[in-house]
């Protein structure tokens, strides 16, 4: 059996249905909602675990986040991951997407023995879809984004399907390489109670900025290493509904006039 060593970067995100936005401070109030694994990352994990079950190998999950992100990694172990690594340190805080990708890529260099990296296509909070391709760029490996089906795989290459702008593409990726997956790629499994209980005691290895110093430059981590900065965040104000009743013989004429003026005087 060929062994495929797979890494799945996973982000813990707030429950997006419940989270509040602090308009004063212009940021997400993370205390207003519970945290959970980014849904797309569960698809990434499922695909990695399926590949491991088919052709052998290991699945390592890695997350950069606060200490609580350990819960997401333990949940990943319950769903079939073998190893879990949490990058947690004040030195990583305030990272933009590039500095996030740089820290993840540096940790992946430290892991060293990998064939495939599987990311989600995007997160439900940041929603940029940049971290997967940026991580591949920093590692200098090829990548394919928006994969919705894995067709064939072996130790040297993987053939995948993507769908973009109404067209279906069959693409081949030489390994080591990175793919990002959409939610259509699979249906993530639910962990059994037994798996959840076992995963509670799983070891989550924690690495800080100093642990990665040998493999990357610390000045590129966190806010200090971020080439972009959020200057201001504004939440668009919701317009209240207005109603107007058109009556009399000119009702239709007046309605048309009103509609024309609402859409910019056509
Ligand atoms: C200037 C600036 C400052 C910021 N400061 C903070 C801050 O202080 N605190 C904060 O929480 N956010 C901060 N952010 C947001 C942070 O940069 C993003 O959350 C992060 O880079 C991931 O981007 P994304 O959510 O768009 O991920 P995407 O690019 O949409 O994610 C794609 C995939 O990449 C992987 N991935 C993404 N993020 C992680 C991760 N952290 N760990 C493992 N895998 C991951 C997952 O597989 C995911 O599906 C800041 C952003 C900017 C621009």
Helix content: 25-40%
CATH topology: Rossmann fold
The main sheet orders its strands as 11-10-9-12-8-1-6-7-13
Highest-level CATH class: Alpha Beta
Instruction: Give the helix tally.
Output: 6
List of distinct ligands in this structure: flavin-adenine dinucleotide
How many whole angstroms does the radius of gyration measure?
Answer: 23 Å
Mean pLDDT: 93
**What is the number of beta strands?**
13
Structural class, judged by helices and strands?
alpha/beta
CATH architecture type: 3-Layer(aba) Sandwich
Main sheet: strands, sense, barrel:
9 strands, mixed
Secondary-structure element pattern, one letter each: EEEEEHEHEHEHEEEEHEH
Distance between the termini: 68 Å
Count of spatially separate domains: 1
In percent, how much strand structure appears in the residues? Answer: 25-35%
CATH superfamily: HUPs
Q: In terms of quaternary structure, what is this?
A: single chain
Q: Ranges with pLDDT <50 over ≥5 residues? A: none
């Amino acid at each position: 059996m060929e062994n495929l060593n797979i890494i799945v970067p996973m982000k813990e995100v707030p429950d997006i249905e419940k989270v509040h936005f602090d308009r004063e401070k212009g940021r997400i109030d993370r205390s207003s909602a519970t945290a959970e694994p980014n849904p797309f990352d569960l698809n990434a994990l499922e695909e990695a675990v399926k590949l491991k079950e088919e052709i052998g190998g290991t699945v390592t999950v890695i997350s950069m986040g606060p200490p609580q992100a350990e819960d997401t990694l333990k949940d990943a172990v319950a769903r079939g991951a073998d190893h879990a690594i949490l990058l947690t340190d004040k030195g990583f805080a305030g990272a933009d997407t590039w500095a996030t990708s740089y820290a993840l890529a540096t940790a992946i260099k430290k892991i060293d023995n990998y064939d495939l990296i599987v990311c989600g296509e995007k997160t439900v909070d940041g929603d940029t879809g940049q971290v997967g391709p940026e991580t591949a760029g920093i590692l200098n490996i090829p990548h394919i984004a928006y994969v919705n089906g894995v067709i064939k795989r072996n130790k040297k290459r993987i053939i995948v399907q993507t769908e973009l702008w109404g067209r279906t593409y069959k693409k081949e990726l030489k390994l080591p390489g990175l793919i990002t997956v959409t939610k259509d790629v699979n249906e993530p499994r639910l962990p059994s109670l037994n798996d959840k209980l076992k995963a509670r005691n799983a070891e989550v290895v924690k690495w800080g900025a100093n642990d990665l110093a040998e493999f990357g430059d610390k000045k590129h981590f966190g806010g200090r290493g971020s080439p972009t900065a959020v200057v201001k965040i504004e939440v668009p104000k919701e317009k209240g509904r207005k109603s107007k009743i058109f009556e009399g013989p000119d009702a239709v004429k007046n309605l048309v006039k009103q509609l024309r003026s609402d859409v910019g005087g056509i």
